[in-house]
Write a structure and sequence with these properties.
single chain, 367 residues, alpha+beta, DNA Polymerase III, Chain A, domain 2, 3 domains, 13-stranded antiparallel sheet, 9-stranded antiparallel sheet, 6 helices, 45% strand
Length: 367
């Protein structure tokens, strides 16, 4: 095998398949990247057992062939090379890499031992705008659960129907829902799948992302295809919680405020709340004021007043400030937020409306 390719294209390709390299591989082959030199192009593959990634780039191929090299090693080598032509030569036991005055010899593994790329035969597919989808995933994926005992909560529910994309995530303490309008295929049946939250975020952040992404669903897989990249992940199977049942049908108080002002005030007050993440929200309907306050036996007290609009009665509630900051950071910088409250021990609901509508439900903590 012998080929030549630019350092920048090679580094980008390794950045794409790097997400699939197993970090603590029980089998050395899973810590490697399979490189296949074909006619006029190089194909890279990686897998960690849960995800598999395939990506190709054009190259000057003089001799076709296959090899497997340690993923982290070759990535570190390539990113430190000068921006020039890189030549690969493989003799079956080692790969020689040359770039200007730099020379490396890397040990290789037998490509016949590398797992075959999953067979792709999606039952349903849909094509969506990747930039919009990425913005929506950024708003919800932090809400997914890290508890491996309930895998269904580690996923994001994606539903596409009637020109509307909706994403839902929950970790049982909070719930995030966002939706946006976009042109979708005219079908009678909604496209619905539960995507692992971390996978969804990683896919849309890949440097090879194109303007549109195709998502396919098979029996046990979800397949993302864009440009010269194919990313296959195990899908999460099961019934996602019915989020509509969690939403109160009425509210006693609505507080309207600026999202960025809330975030800034919350960061200041929470300096005192390091050992106890609870911050108290006191909405004064008569004075049109929202008071944020926190206290700590070791550090003292802090409070700040915000001018707001309050519809309804005065009310107090305590919330985890980490979770509130996750909410306001997901809202557009120039957006207003409506905080809907039913009672001091009832869920708080934050709502924001823009090109992406956003709802965030948060369970209170004891005051």
């Amino acid at each position: 095998m012998r080929f030549t390719v630019s350092q920048s294209a090679l580094a980008k390709a390794l950045g794409v398949v790097g997400k699939g390299i197993a970090s603590n591989a029980s089998q050395p082959i899973l810590a490697g990247v399979r490189i296949h030199a074909g006619e006029g192009s190089i194909e890279f593959q990686s897998t960690n057992g849960n995800i598999s990634i395939r990506h190709s780039i054009p190259a000057n191929v003089e001799e076709q062939g296959d090899t497997v090299v340690a993923g982290k090693t070759i990535t570190n080598v390539v990113k430190n090379l000068p921006d020039a032509a890189v030549t690969f030569e493989d003799d079956g036991s080692q790969t020689k890499i040359t770039c200007e005055r730099s020379h490396f010899r890397l040990n290789t593994l037998d490509p016949r031992d590398f797992p075959a790329f999953p067979a792709l035969d999606p039952d349903r597919t849909i094509e969506l705008p990747s930039e919009l989808l990425s913005s929506m995933v950024d708003k919800v994926y932090k809400v997914t659960s890290k508890d491996t005992s309930r895998p269904i909560l580690s996923g994001v529910l994606l539903t596409v129907e009637n020109n509307t994309i909706r994403l839902v995530a929950t970790d049982s303490y909070r719930l995030a829902v966002c939706d946006s309008n976009t042109e979708t295929p005219d079908t009678d049946e909604a496209f619905e799948v539960i995507v692992p939250g971390a996978t969804f975020h990683d896919v849309l952040a890949l440097p090879s992302m194109t303007e549109r992404i195709e998502i396919g669903v098979a029996e046990s897989q979800i397949v993302f295809t864009f440009g010269n990249t194919c990313y296959v992940s195990r899908r999460i199977e099961g019934n996602f919680p019915n989020f509509r049942q969690l939403l109160p049908t009425t509210q006693n108080v609505v507080v309207r405020l600026d999202a960025q002002q809330l975030a800034q005030a919350l960061r200041r007050v929470s300096v005192i709340a390091q050992s106890n993440p609870s911050v108290r929200f006191d909405a004064d309907a008569d004075g049109a004021i929202l008071k944020l306050s926190a206290s700590s036996p070791d550090q003292g007290e802090a409070s700040e007043m915000l001018g707001v609009e309050v519809e309804g009665e005065s009310i107090s509630i305590a919330l985890n400030y980490h979770y509130v900051l996750d909410c306001v950071s997901a809202v557009a910088s120039d957006a207003d937020v409506a905080l809907e409250l039913l009672g001091s021990m009832q869920p708080a609901i934050f709502k924001s409306y823009s090109s992406i509508n956003y709802l965030y439900l948060l369970m209170p903590v004891r005051m």
